[in-house]
Amino acid sequence: MSTIDSFFKDFYNENYSKAFRYANSLVFDKETARDLASDAMLRIWEMRTEIDRERNLCSLLFVTVRNKCMDYLRHETVKYKAHQQTSASAELNHLHEFVLESTVLSDYYTQELTQLMNKSMDSMQETTRNCFQMVRLEGKSYQEVADALNITTRSVEYELKKATTRMQLLLGDYVCA
Predict the structure, then answer these.
(1) How far is the first Cα of the chain from the last one, in angstroms, to the nearest whole number?
(2) What does pTM read for this prediction?
């Protein structure tokens, strides 16, 4: 075994448990902390030929562990936010479907509601109207609408929100009655 290998083996044996405890104090999950501490040790091993052994390797290890933990936490935050948005959207769509399915409308009521919707849509800007029509009435995805109108999906979301707010204001008495 080379001196570098034996040096790293000693370093690993002395510091892995410390790196694990530090990672666990940041992520509060033992399995993830083990993975992150191992990843940090692997990173030190990969840098072994570039590292000056006289340098304080413990501080390098702890900075590496911290960076790995922060990357993990950032990634988890993004996953959580995406899940929340997807869940909220699915719940809202389910609620809309439930309300529409459970409401029995008379012909007169349906005609009046349709006229008000058309009037509201006619007063919208073209992009807003197109977004509302394509997403809500035709069932297209945000990406399909964005591609068709040559705008971003974020713009589709914004325009749809404007249209929905306008519809809610105009049709609030009918929908809530």
Answers:
(1) 81
(2) 0.48
Residue-wise pLDDT tens digits, 6-18: 888 898 999 999 9
* Nearest residue to 136 via CA among 155, 161, 113: 161
Closest CA to 174 of 132, 94, 120, 133: 120
Helix (H, G, I), strand (E, B) or coil at 101: helix
Spatial distance between the Cα atoms of 58 and 60, rounded to a whole number of angstroms: 5
Residue 38: other Cβ atoms inside 10 A: 16
CA dist 25 and 19 (Å) reads 10
| Domain 3-79 part of CATH 1.10.1740.10 | yes
* Dist. CA 6–CA 87, nearest whole Å: 51
Domain boundaries, the chain: 3-79, 105-176
**Reduced to 3 states, what is the DSSP secondary structure of residue 104?**
coil
- Under CATH, what is the fold of the domain 105-176? Arc Repressor Mutant, subunit A (1.10.10)
pLDDT at 173: 58
DSSP state of 55: S
